[in-house]
Amino acid sequence: MEQRLLLNLGQGDWQSGFASVTAQLWEHEQPPIQFVGSLPPWPHLATQYERWQQLYGAIYSTQSRWRRAAADFEFDPTEPTNVSQQEFATLCTTLRTELNQWLAAATFAPIDRRLRTRLSAQAAIRVMLTAHAPSVLRFPWRLWHLFDDYPNAELSLSLPDYSRTLKQVQAKPNGKVRILAVLGNDAGIDVATDRQILSQLPEAQVTLLAQPTLSKLQHQLWESSWDILFFAGHSTSRGQGYLQVNATEALTIDQLKYALRRAVQKGLQLAILNSCDGLGLAWALADLHLPQTIVMREPVPDAIAHQFLKGFLAQFSRGQPLYSSVREAREKLHGLTELGNCAAWLPVIVQNPAEEPPTWQQLAGYPPLCPPVLQSPPQRRHGLTPAVRRLGLTTLAITAVIAGLRWTGVLQSAELSAYDALMRLRPLETADPRLVVVTIDESDIQAQTEGDRRGSLADATLLQTLTTLAGYEPRIIGLDLYRDFPASDPALVAALSQPNVVGLCKSRDAIADRMGISPPPELSSTQVGFSDFIEDTDGTLRRQLLTLTPDPVSPCTSPYGFATLIAIHYLNETGRQPTFTAQGDLQIGAVVFPRLERRTGGLQRMDQGGNQLLLNYRSLPSPQQIAPRIGLQQLLNGQVNPDRIRDRIVLIGVTAASSGDFWSTPYGTRAHNRTAGVFMQAQMISQLISAVEDDRPLIWVLPQWAEVVCIALGAIAGSLLAGRWRSARLMLAWLLTASAFTLSAWVALLSGGWLPLLPTLLSLGSSTLLTASQAPSQPPERSIKSPHFAE
What we know:
By secondary structure, the protein is α/β, with parallel strands linked by helices. The protein has 23 helices and 31 strands.
């Protein structure tokens, strides 16, 4: 699988920033998805990079055998002449740190976060970077942490304007990669090694031009067709940029413009400039719509140029993709010379985003690789017995039908009911001692003066509640109450602004709530989580929404759920910081909360919005018994033992029937046994904290292929039962087998595993009936008679 990312910085520079940054991501051959953001000014990064270039220039100016043009030998009196290797290494590290601090800006973070939720660590990722300022593209962008987190990602640069060239179809009767190798002025460098590396390439037709004249080089470009143009020698990007093709001539790309354009039309796919400072030359080649160019961004030592060329061509000629070949060859340059790890910054791809990078086999003109069809010699056939054939066909048919029904979602409702039944059969657990719920019932609401009350609690009552709780020293106070209006009492403002108070808001929803609800204005953004729940198609809560990408025009822009935020605050105090994995999954401490796939267990038709998790309810007679309850009046009247609240999470929420905040759960869907929202929040908080502190399991499912294997095992078992027994014995055997499958599913659920029980039982029953109906009737038993002897 391959993913392509085009990151367009647009207009801007280090001093003014980049006001419009666009990221487009292509995956699974689908149209691209797009994210937008911006980057602030960061002139210090440009200053650090200029200093790095000065030190780099000072290092190579004292060394021999560097692939640099004659103009590069000019001495700049402002540049340092005595360079400390430690200073150079420190500056390399500083550049990485500065770049990633800049990319962590709040205006760019949404792009980074959303990319990490879509990119795959296993996929080959082509990251194409473009900007209007060439100086920005010259920076070593592979220092971005994204390339460390995704080992199969590689960078390329591109011009902001690009298009595809109409190419002439050229036949390749010999199946060779046609390479025009130009060995330019070799004064002070070793191009013989380049010649030797090229001569060892498999399936290659290499034409060598040693220090050619302009006319000879143009003749080859005009008259012949080439796949790869290779240059080794001196070059530079200063001024127009030029190639020193011989001791007396230095050619610009403009001098070769029409010949190169003709070569591109005839099939030239790749240029490899194994010389110095080639980015300016690469831009000129990109203007001619050359699909790919590989260059060195700075002057380069002979040893690095040879090592990269050898490593790249070795991988590329073996069939590896161009990008992964460049990355592997580039990473092997780490620490080879006095440049240290900076040597791996030098090679870079300049890519036309409108073109696809070719493989070596495609350059050679081969069709897509297919395994050969071998003719086997005639062998004696050992046919399967009819019984085995029937078993195989029955298993295949039953498995295919049930897996297909499950895939389309036909079985989802029945599977969820079976899952709920197993949830209710688990052994009882105790309530979570870290939580306390303060309930607001109908009498508490009616006891307040209606004129003073704008929500469930009047300001005076809320202030009294928070003041009373503060005296009991809870660790966190969670307000499961909507308050989208400011408090009028300064004392209440101060109470709400305490760092251990967490409130909530409601995100916009195109179906249920088009407006959303704002958070309490007294709370900072780090104290507000969204209240949104996700119901399944039958209206039951079985999932927890951990995070989501907020709608920027919604009044609620918190990326974390109310329960998630409270759990994070609680665990922060024990040193467990939240992070996100390369796959975009939330991690707290050592526990990773993997997001749900589109098809998870029995959920085959699921809304994938946000980062979701199956909710592992604490096994209790009712979800409302998750934590001790304290009535509001009981709290305000001082009828509470302080030890019940001290150092705990206190949730304040409405349990009055008039609130309408009641939810169906696996423990009850009817009106009288639905669960108040504040207890649902408590269940979700408890799940996260218990997973981190108590190693309580999360709900997990088997991979799709393993679930199909379970269905197939049920079909095999049913066919074997029907072939072995009849009548009452068959029924007993079937019940015992079905019970064994059910017991296995129940035991697995005790450790968090959701096995495909219902599909397996269906395949067991279907294959039993089908096999029994196809089996031939048994002949009647014959009586055994004693032999008769004639007298």
